């Protein structure tokens, strides 16, 4: 891709939007680290996520082809979720973003604090 490929309707933007939701990247990373999991195991492993929020994230990720839902013919019914091939392919760029955050996160937080300290008074 060259710089002209980063336009309002480019495919690269699609990739960034996949991870823009607060929980989607966490769910992808957790499934990548732990393999297929039931929703209750995901809630326990992630921590701080409500079951409904997880449900919404899983549905969104499934709709985008990043996870698949496997149903088992058991009583009571059981399902688990796993990454698809394209979901697993996101792990490498996510790790790269994590490395970027480790390297530059403090600088970003400092810049945000400086910007928050700038209060403009309008008359």
Automatic annotation (TrEMBL):
| Keyword presence, Chloroplast | no
Per UniProt, which keywords does this protein have? Answer: DNA-binding, Transcription, Transcription regulation
All residue ranges annotated as the HTH hxlR-type domain in the record: 10-109
Name one molecular function that GO assigns to this entry. DNA binding
Can you tell which superkingdom this protein's organism belongs to? Answer: Bacteria
Note the Pfam families from the entry: HxlR
Secretion signal span: none
Cross-referenced InterPro entries? HTH_HxlR, WH-like_DNA-bd_sf, WH_DNA-bd_sf
Name the PANTHER family for this protein.
TRANSCRIPTIONAL REGULATOR, MARR FAMILY, TRANSCRIPTIONAL REGULATORY PROTEIN
Under which name does UniProt file this protein? HxlR family transcriptional regulator
